Amino acid sequence: MGNLKALQTGHVGLNVTDLDRSVAFYRAVLEVEVSAEGNEEGRRFAFLGRDGKLLITLWQQSEGAFPTRSPGLHHLSFQVETIDEVKAAERVLRGLDAHFDYDGVVPHGEHGTSGGIFFTDPDGIRLEIYAPSGADPADAPTAGAPTCGFF
Predict the structure, then answer these.
(1) In the predicted model, is pLDDT for residue 144 greater than 70?
(2) Residue 111: its pLDDT value, please?
(3) d(CA 108, CA 110)
(4) Distance (Å, whole) CA 107 – CA 44
(5) What is the CA radius of gyration of the chain?
(6) Phi (first) and psi of residue 26, to 5 degrees
(7) Do domains 1-61 and 74-151 have the same CATH topology?
(8) C-alpha dist (Å) from residue 18 to 34, 83, 105, 111
């Protein structure tokens, strides 16, 4: 390796249309806290994280809905330890009337045991919460490709 030792993803920045709505959504679903925020008109933002680690930054500077057909972010994925945690998040999302791309927990591939839920945030940004094992081995919703790839 070259000069970039121990490279890892830091945080993900997302443009949103309604900061208050998005903060409430991400706090409820991911159990994150607001670590910093800006409320100056035209420059509203929030930093969300957990245990001192920044995970997501939200920037209120967009209109409309997330354009899934344009180049850019495909989806944002969060790993948890167990399928029970995935199912707990699913219950919260159902209470928020979130849109799901598939019904319930689905495997990442044919008869795989890793899997999760695929849903969108209030601006249509595609999200995933998954566990590395514990999904019921079953037919994947997308044959011949990873479930998280074409949805």
Answers:
(1) no
(2) 66
(3) 7
(4) 37
(5) 16
(6) -65, -35
(7) yes
(8) 15, 31, 28, 39
Report the alpha-carbon distance of residue 151 to residue 146 in Å, rounded.
Answer: 10
Residue with tokens 């790839």: 149
Q: What angle do CA 121, 122, 126 make, to 5 degrees?
A: 30
Strands 53-60 and 45-50, by their bridges, are antiparallel
Task: Read off the amino acid at residue 49.
Answer: G
Yes or no: say if 107 and 113 are a contact pair by the CB < 8 Å rule.
yes
Q: What ranges do the domains of the chain cover?
A: 1-61, 74-151
Residue range 74-151 in CATH 3.10.180.10: yes
Cα angle 87, 111, 116; round to 5: 25
Per CATH, is 1-61 categorized as 3.90.1170.50? Answer: no
Q: How far apart are CA 71 and CA 67, in angstroms?
A: 9
Helices in 35-124 by DSSP H: which ranges?
83-95
pLDDT at res. 142: 73
Tokens of 38: 């800006």
* The pair of three-digit structure tokens given for residue 101, joined into one six-digit string: 């791309």
Q: What is the pTM of this model?
A: 0.90
State residue 1's pLDDT score.
57
